[in-house]
Model the fold of this input.
Amino acid sequence: GSRGNTSFQLEAALFCLGTVSIEIMKAIDSNWEMDDNDEIAAIVTHHEENLKRCLVSLGTRPQNLISNPLTLSQASQFLRKYAKVFTRSSVASETLAVAADLCMYFFSTSLTSFRGKPVEPILSLMTSSPFTEASLAVQSIMHRGPSKFTDSAAIAALQGAWGGFYRDEEFTRSVTREDRKAFCSGVCTVLSALPSEKWCQVLSTFASPTIEYLEALTTSLEEAATAGNDESQIIERISCEIDIVTCIIRSFDRALNNSDSLRLLGNDSIAQIQHPSLLIVQRSWPCISHLAKNQGKKEEIAESILSFFRHCIPMLRSQLDTRVLLNEMGTYTKTIGDHMLSQHGSLDPVTDLILEVLDVFGASLSSIDDVSPADQPLSVAAGEFLGAFTSWMHQACLSSMGPSWRGNSEQMQGQRPFESRTSDSDDDVQMQTDAIQGLFQILTKCLQQYPVIMAKIHPHGTPENYGDILLRSALDMAIDSINSNQVDTCRAAMLFLSCSAELPIQSLQMDQSNTTDSIMVLESKRHVSNTIENAISRQRLDIVKKVLFGVSGVFHRPLLDPAAYVLFSILRGSTILEA
Done:
């Protein structure tokens, strides 16, 4: 009884410390920024000493710390909220080791300490579990002080804890996807702090339990389908494990990019190292590709696979022999995307993947004539991927917008259709919204960062001037969408229009200034600018009328800024007579 009372008293004290954490951290941050203020320095020193005392006291692991889940959750929150102090303050050398030890202690005991005990009903009333809070604490401490976890014993403990997720079926099911991602992110930060010669080995060892479990689940799914059993739980777990593999790839890559390890290696050494995350891509690829081919029609699995593809793209850039992998991703994405279209599913995952390819390969595609012969095969493959799926998204827009737009596409003239359409179902409207938004986002990024791509884009089976046709068609869609009742579509349309209207102005300014662009690049930019200018000049008055009508009380608040951008860009590019 007395232990239970002191446990709740400790929980209340930790809650109070957490409540004032924002104010305390503000004071500490201001002291770190302005270290010449003696008064603030004295207050901060006082805070740091008190926090150190609290941490050291918790470090003794009193029994009442784990007597109830509320106390353990508050203790984890205490570590997370003050992680910056324990890892960066003047007392970090003493506190970091204690914080690291505590967060692992909280993590290892948070799931097993309360099973079958009288306090179990409390867990059902908590908004977040003790394990969730412990996972977030581990993530925060590991991100800020990874060096405290890099000795062989700590690495073994982390890998053992991760393997524990897969040794106990009940344990595996009770841990949420987000909790595991938080822990995974922290561990990958630690692994990236190891010497470079150990990266591939430790990352492969860490990821093995997840990939092996994913392979076993894939077999179970096929057996369940053959036997006619319920597949829903297996599908959800497969989706989860694909997301975890993706998290490992993304987290290690991000940690590596944020650390000093690559900079210390130097560019020559980096070129000779296979990206460690690419090993995980290759190790999991047989299973992922099998799922994409045979289970890609299952929405939850399909979305996880496309997310996996998207986060693999940055790894492909670092290796020249990954062209086949990119081509296979394109094949499976096309299959999944076609099914999404037929089922009126969300096209957002496909859009995100195309945008990632554009982010990673856009610069090389803009200057592919200057790319070295060794790099060209991968850049060409990326260009084919981008062209094929931009065309695919364009066709999805035309299909969803009805016969009038299909007729416009067949004419290949870019004339604006005025025929009315019959009302669409909710599913049709959602698919149309996703497709149009996706196309506008892709083209907006192209015009803002890589306009040359629009002059080079030429998917297989399309006319030589496909880029011009695509731009004219998209501009017509954008003008037609200005007064759409779909707010997101209207916003994406106006951002695309304003970006398009600015390009001819920027091209004119570029002609009048010194530039390092090659003659071929300059000619491509001028060509794209002229195509846009000719398309907009025919409908400049129509655009202004539509936008003015919208801002006269029709547009929702989020549309007012894009509307202002469109008006400014259109009027800025007009002649005195047109204005």
Q: What stands out?
A: Residues 400 and 432 are 5 Å apart (CA to CA).
